[in-house]
Amino acid sequence: MKRLWIRIRLPLAVVALLVVTLAMARLFSGPEDTWIKNEQGEWIRHGYPSGPPPAQDYSEPVTYMVIPIFFLAAFAVPLFFLRFHKLHNRLNFDTASRDIKFFGYVSTALFLMGILTGAGLITEICMSGGGGDVSLLEFLVILSIGGFAGMCVILGALFFLLKRNCNDHYILEKSRREMLEILENFSSR
Q1: How far, in Å, CA of 117 to CA of 78, rounded?
Q2: Which member of 16, 54, 55, 123 has the lowest number of beta carbons within 10 Å of its beta carbon?
Q3: Can you list the alpha helix ranges (DSSP code H) found in 47-92?
Q4: Which tens digit of pLDDT belongs to each residue from 63-83?
């Protein structure tokens, strides 16, 4: 039973991440019953909208397009790093150096994802003009994306510190083993 679990846990994790991503994308993709524009710029009924068509200069909120892409990227990035890291016995120096490289990749990716998400959010806020009423949903979306960007930057910094600590421990352990080997050579003479 344990072998079966070891074999199916990665595919199950991928399927679970895809289901969560699709559910979040559907949740934030906008209303189903609404008005949409065709190629000529005319409003066409989609489903059963509750109100009249919007004004001609109306544009959809950016959150309807950005949020699904954001969630897809947030759930897909960890899958990219699975190929760099495999669980091994930590007593081997080759696997320790591989772990140090993995922490370096993760720290760089998280830090850059946080910076790019924050820069994209600031760019989007600046491009929107900032002179309109912000609905509660838009405020919560902006707040959650900003929080995610901050969390990525903080986690990137923490993984960088973890990488540095692992590297220092690796160097100390290597030096200790070399000293023990030298002492054994002296004591055997």
Answers
A1: 16
A2: 55
A3: 63-81
A4: 666 766 776 676 666 666 666
Rounded (10°) CA dihedral 92, 95, 97, 101:
-170
105 or 74, higher pLDDT: 105
Q: What is the pTM of this model?
A: 0.50
Q: Write down the pLDDT at residue 108.
A: 86
The pLDDT, as a whole number, for residue 115 is 87
Contact between 158 and 91 under an 8 Å Cβ cutoff? The reply is no
CA dist 172 and 18 (Å) reads: 42
Number of C-beta neighbours around residue 96 at 10 A = 19
Among candidate residues 185, 173, 113, the one with its CA nearest the CA of residue 145: 113
Contacts of 14 (CB under 8 A, 6+ apart): 79
pLDDT for res 141: 79
C-alpha distances in angstroms, 168 versus 100, 109, 162, 175? 10, 22, 10, 11
Domain edges within the chain: 2-32+60-188
